[in-house]
Amino acid sequence: MQNKPEYTRMLPHYHPLGATFFVTFRLYGSLPKSFLDELSAWYNCELERIEQKLPGTERPTALAYLQRDYFHRLDRALDQCLHGPMVLSRPDVASEVVGQLNRFDGEYYHLQGYTILSNHCHVLLDFSAQADSVGQVDVATYKNLDYVMQRIKGASARAINLILESTGTPFWQREYHDRYIRHHRHLLAAVDYLKQNPVSAGLCSHWREHPFTWIHEQFW
Fold this sequence. Notes:
- This protein is α+β, with helices and mostly antiparallel strands.
- The chain has a domain at 18-29 and 85-219: Transposase IS200-like (Alpha-Beta Plaits), CATH 3.30.70.
- Helices cover 42% and strands 16% of the residues.
- The chain has a 5-stranded antiparallel sheet, sandwiched between helices. A two-stranded antiparallel sheet has the order 1-2.
- α1 runs antiparallel to α2 (59-80) and α3 (91-103) runs antiparallel to α4.
- The chain starts with a strand and ends in a 5-residue tail after the last strand.
C-alpha cells in the first residue's frame, strides 16, 4: 500500500492511501473557545515534552497516546452538550447526514459504520474502495480524506441549512479529527466506540436503539 504524508490541522500524522479512517466532525460553535484554547495549550505542552525528553524510539508510541488522549478529551466535552447547537438530534437533520454518507459509499470508501449524536458525528470509512484488485491505488485519481470530508460536509450543510432556513450561516466546524486504523484490533476498538458512544452519551441503553447509529453487518 502506498503512503503519503498529510500534516493537517494541529495533529500531524500520515494518511496511508486506501486506509480505513475513524473520523469525528462537529457542529460549528459546539465547543467554547476557552475550552479549545486550554486543550491546545495542554496538547502543545505534552508535545514539547515528548519531543525534548523522550528518545526517538519512544516518540511514535507516545505521540499515538497523545492523539488518543486529545480525542477523548474533545469527545467527552462534546458528549456533555454544554455549549452550542444540538440540531443533529432532529431526525430530519440527521437523515441528511446519513444520506451524504451513503451517497459516496462504494465510490470513495466502503462505509463501515457511523453514529450521529446531538452535536457531532463519528464515522468509519474504508478507502480501499479506491484500490484495484491487488490493493494498489492510482495516486493521480485518488480522492483523499480531506476531499471526501469537504464533499460530505458541504453537501449536507447546504441541505440542512435549507431545512433550518439558515442558508449562508456556518453549519459544520471547519476542522475534523481523524485517525487511521493501524490493525484489526484497532478496527474492532473503533467499531466498539461507535456502538458505545450513544449509550455513554445517555441517548439509549443499547446501540441498536439509536436510530442514527449504523454498523456494517460484518461487525455484528
